[in-house]
Amino acid sequence: MTENGQQSNGFSFDRFKLWPNQRLLMDDDEIVHLTPRVFDLLEMLVKNSGQVVTKDDLLSTVWAGRTVEEGNINRTISTLRKHLGVQISGTDFIETVPSVGYRFLPQTSILEPEQRSPVKKRSFATGHPRPKTVALILLLLTACIAIAAFGWLRLSRQVSDPTAKNVLIRLTTSELDERNPTFTTDGRVRFFRDASYAMNADGSDVRRDESIANLSIGFWAPDGTKVMFYKQGDTKTAYLANADGSGEVKLPFTFGNCQWSAGGKRFLFQNGVKRMDGGVDSNIYVYDLETGSIDAIVDSPFFDGDPSFAPDEGSILFVSDRDGNLEIYSKDLTTGEIRRLTDDPAHDAFPSYSPDGTQILFSSARDKDDRDIFIMNADGTGVRQIVDLDSNESVGNAAWSRDGTKILLLSDASGTDNVYVMNIEPFEPRPLFPENSDQMRSIIPIPGKDAYVAAIQMQAENVEFWTLDSSGHKEVNIASTNILQAPNISPDGSNLAFAARIEGNSEVFTVAIGGEPTNISNHPNADAAPAWSPDGRRLVFASNRGDNRAANGLFIMNSDGTEQRQLYFANSFATDPKFSPDGSRIFFSDDKIGGKIGNFELFSINAETGTDEQRLTFRRRYDVLPTISPDSKHIAFVSGNGNSNSEIYLANIDGSGVIRLTRDASEDTNPIFSLDGKTILFSSNRSGHWAAYYITLP
After folding, report:
1. 283 with 416, same domain?
2. Cystine design at 341: which of 217, 318, 380, 584 (Cβ 3.0–4.6 Å)?
3. Is residue 220 part of a domain?
4. Alpha carbon 195 to chain centroid distance?
5. Does residue 215 lie in a domain region?
6. Which helix H or strand E contains 135, and what residues bound it?
7. pLDDT, tens digit, for every residue of 29-43?
8. Residue range 18-77, pLDDT digits in tens
């Protein structure tokens, strides 16, 4: 990708220096040896730092002249990530933009040729170690859990698959009661028995933590670098130390139920004294590690306890008897507003937000005398029971795995409280066509028919569009494309709109079922992601037409390709446009918030003028591929963290009330509402191949 023998500038990012002309990557003063393909990929990303580099761009440059599968790109990206590790700040270098491509995150500076410094050679790439990805941790966990599953006698249903959803899998078999199970940064599990212990995610290799002398029970920061703890035989003095025991200091307080903030800078804890009437006056405090200050967050004459932070640290959850019964409350730490979230005669305990903040897990003795586990939306609505056994099950305030696909819990099914794990998915998806083995990348119901259009990946970048009957059997081969992107079907079910590459350029096509595809955009710039208007007369699409080809705007045209005009442009990457069912607004995703820092949000605009812009999501994640319910009350979309773990979310049409519908380490993508709006269809590779699934909406 560079010409040898010529002087050229280099690039500096984080701790690395890249010299394309010399085919040289340096990590500080050491050479990182990359294969030619990996080097070309890095060069492409660095030269477009901060911009989205689409898979089409990579295929036409890094893989120019070769026919390759999407998996080649994914594997090369994975190899490059391993060489680079993580930035000094601990964040990734490369973000995955679901269904689009990749973005290089670090700030990049130009280096003059004379700035090149001497290097030391090394025989292999060492780089800074990259933490194990969630996918690898989950793969190891699910493979190992099978061993533990054989020994468990009291399941909510029979476990035949260690990856089964919503089933308890036993990890420990001690005759001593255990408590406070939490996941470590490397995917292991910590818990307290007669002292603090740690074990592998499958329950093997249980070892007492001896990193700190006389450690009794410890609470480690999310990054594992610090620990709050008590020592053996002393419950009146609390300590803070580094994870290796160095820097030990006594704390000016003692604590009961507690939790670290996500950033590891604050410590939330409960502390109380007995009242004259035998009750407990318990309040909630926060300790700031940097300033040493202790502030009361909830201070009342009632019992307030079981505190936990929201992921963004802007609010907390807690339990209180201020209204006569132990209920769950939230408090906004900015406004001070306290909201009651539950209202049930049973005692609710240990609420905790899911890692994305959209749902709350808690324990309760509702409906009977034993404790069970429940989940609800962040506003207290949509309560669902996820464990219903005759034994007592409970969760702590740090039960979630980091990706939100697993929870740790305690159960006394064996007579003592032991540690269990669950692959949690409250809205458990079902296969739409259990017998179909095609690589189904998207599924769309055909209006007016009990049939579907499926995008089936055949090989490499070849995707064929087929009509399927109600059982999933292929009927008509409509067309094919070389872009892994879902098509859009016209309101009357007679035509498809899709994108395909011609001579390296992406164009918008339409095709009648049984007809021949027609290129209707026919423009030298890249046009993609077309969607029909409700009356079938127009199409909205994304394109990089304009001076900045790294930026996408939204355009609109008649269904025959005439009267093409720009509707919206923000010098950013707008994509995935969809009309509302009444045709008045267009919903789309865009990365303009924060200056292209790896954050896609959802927006809507007036469909005629492109004005009256409304932002719908407010999260540092990839929120993409919106689809609108037939009654215009809800929006479903895909959200991911940039590491190939995309999930399906649901929100009100204004973006409020966001909840996560799928919880799996695989990729869930391309959601669409059923014609009656009662289910959401989507594609996922959770079974080992791409298949169609459905979720019955709450």
Report:
1. yes
2. 380
3. no
4. 34
5. no
6. helix 134-149
7. 677 877 778 888 999
8. 988 878 888 876 778 777 788 889 999 999 988 889 888 888 888 887 766 776 788 788
Residue 315 and residue 415 share a domain: yes
List the CATH number of the domain containing 618: 2.120.10.30
Distance CA 603, CA 613 (A): 7
Q: What is the structure's pLDDT at 585?
A: 98
Using one digit for the tens of pLDDT, what is the confidence trace for 183-222? 999 889 999 998 999 999 999 999 998 888 889 999 999 9
- Among 246, 243, 215, which residue's Cα sits nearest to residue 229? 215
Strands laid side by side in the 527-532 sheet: 527-532, 538-543, 553-558, 565-568
Question: Which one-letter amino acid corresponds to residue 376?
Answer: M
Calculate the average pLDDT of the chain. Answer: 87
Tell me which residue has tokens 């990530």: 81
| 604 domain-assigned | yes
97: exposed, middle or buried (C-beta count within 10 Å: 0-12, 13-18, 19+)? buried
Beta strands in 226-346 (DSSP E): 226-231, 234-242, 249-250, 258-260, 266-274, 280-288, 294-298, 304-309, 315-320, 327-332, 338-340
d(CA 41, CA 64): 12
What are the pLDDT digits (tens) for 505-545? 999 999 998 899 999 999 999 999 999 999 999 999 999 99
Q: Give yes or no: residues 55 and 156 share one domain.
A: no
Residues 143-158, mean pLDDT to the nearest whole number: 34
Structural domain contains residue 321 = yes
* Residue 67 belongs to domain spanning: 10-115
